[in-house]
Amino acid sequence: MDFKLPEQQIFPSQMSKWHLQHLQVIPGYTTGSVLSPNLFSLFVDGMEKMVSSCNIGLFADNVVIWKNDKDVIKIENSLNENMAAIQSFSEEHKLNFNPAKSFTCIFTTNRHMFNLQPKIYLKGYLLETTKSPTYLGFTLDTEINCGKHIAKLVEKGRKRLQLLKFISGRDWGANSGTLRMTYTALIRPVLEYGYQVYQVASQTNLNKLERVQLSAARIITVSEAAVRKLLFCMRPNFSLCP
């Protein structure tokens, strides 16, 4: 979502020894500016009051509206009415919604409606329909079983497991404490992201996360066993140690 400040103005100015005939002020803000979040919060304040028959959620520059009903036509009409109200609000406050970055998704357990294409419009453009939208880093799915999100967590977690393998070894490498700290800092936060939502997931999906943790535990405990074996072999008068 992008927004614009009031139209540019031209002021006469003089800076040190260099005389500038005109100083042109360009509307907008610098990317990464400290004022950007505050200005954006001021510009979107009151948007939730424009939504009447739907629910709305605002977080940073992410806006989501939704409605629950058995009648699909009623849902489409209600959403389009509220989208028009939000569009009027954005034009009044110099905000610019990007239809290319906006999408719709329908959540239902009715398999006959999985291929439904809701007709929701923004600025005259028909919004694209997706079956696996991502909101605040959480991948949603139409069946609401958290399978898509957990699959991405497992893939990302297994990639980071390679780091544990690289720094561990039977006869060399990091000790078990360093490996455990690495797992806690780099892998466990990935697996726990969004756990408040995927707690309702099936046991089959949750077992996928458990297998990643077991793989990490295996890498750490093998390192511990190797250290214990080395210390045991270094004992004096131990005949089996070469």
Short description:
43% of the residues lie in helices and 16% in strands. The chain is an alpha+beta fold.
What descriptive keywords fit this protein?
242 residues, disordered C terminus, 6 helices, 2 domains, alpha+beta
The overall average pLDDT, rounded, is 77
Unreliable residue stretches: 1-20, 225-242
Give the strand order, joined by hyphens, for the main sheet. Answer: 1-6
Shape: elongated
The figure for the number of domains is 2
SSE sequence, one letter per element: EEEHEEHEEEEEEEHHHH
> What does the main sheet amount to?
2 strands, antiparallel
| Proportion of residues in β-strands | 15-25%
Structure class: alpha+beta
Number of helices: 6
- Cα end-to-end separation: 69 Å
Radius of gyration from the alpha-carbon trace, in angstroms:
28 Å
The percentage helix is: 40-55%
Structural features, described:
The protein has 242 residues and is of the alpha+beta class. It folds into two domains: 35-131, no CATH class; 144-223, no CATH class. Helices cover 43% and strands 16% of the residues. The chain has six helices and twelve strands. The strands form six sheets. Strands 1-6 form a two-stranded antiparallel ribbon. It has a two-stranded antiparallel sheet with strand order 2-3. A hairpin with a 2-residue loop joins strand 8 (121-122) and strand 9. Helix 3 runs antiparallel to helix 4 (176-192), helix 3 runs parallel beside helix 6 (203-233) and helix 4 packs antiparallel against helix 6 (203-233). The chain is elongated. The N and C termini lie far apart (69 Å).
